[in-house]
Structure prediction request, 274 residues.
Amino acid sequence: MKLRCRMTDIEAMRDFISIVTIISRLSRNCVMRFTKNEVCFRAGHSKPPTAWAELSQYHYFMEYTMCGVTEEQNEIYLECDAAMISQSLNSLRTSARSVKIKLTNKQQPCLTFDIELPSSTMEARQCIHDVPVRVIPRREWPEFQKPDTPEFDISIDMPNLKHIRKIVERMKNMSPHLIVTAEKNGTLILKIDADNASVATHFHRLHVWTSSQNAEIENISATVDVKKFLMLLGWDLVHPQNVKCNIIQNKMVNLLFSLDQHLRIYHFVPVINL
Prediction:
């Protein structure tokens, strides 16, 4: 196996560290999947995972060399501590000129991050971090594939995430549960039921798509943990161009974040059955 890649674009590096940081907040356990065309992050061991992120290597990396286990199975799966990677790459937010990522063997497998920093002299400064990883054997690969996305009862465009975050932050102090409802007329409703009051916020005139198998149902709802819903709003750090909220009645809430063809993030929020 061989892995060597390099980032030089400032915006790409900032987005990369933002993705790793959010993943580290969702789950300490992270699986990275490297293929010929993509780098993927999986947060957590649950099924479906808390989040799955797909990054186009053509956009993020100026150089990208990857040789997997075999020609037929040309992939690499690594299990790592997302928090350690986030801490190692912290300088990408401000001052780094470039970063090289290599799979190395230093008494144990490591992802080595070689970061070039600016210097007052002619010679650039180098900062090297070795993050221990576990190379996942092929027999375990099926456990870490891209999660299936079932047919949703309804899918609706999300309003501005920062605006939603402010609202949900206040709701969090009133109730641990959030009811997410999407209506066929293009209305998204976020609601809490507290002991002495019910509070709801309505967002109108949103694009909406519905499943043909539920043509007679006017609205679809699911109840989730308000804190877990709030965590997914952190993806606004990568400035997604489009965010869709997908709901299966009382079973699943999934948010899909996309940025051109460069980035797709699937975030799954467990439903609470009260």
User: Anything to note?
Assistant: DSSP finds five helices and 18 strands in the chain. The chain has a mean pLDDT of 91. The longest helix spans residues 10-26. The chain has two domains: 2-144, 154-270.
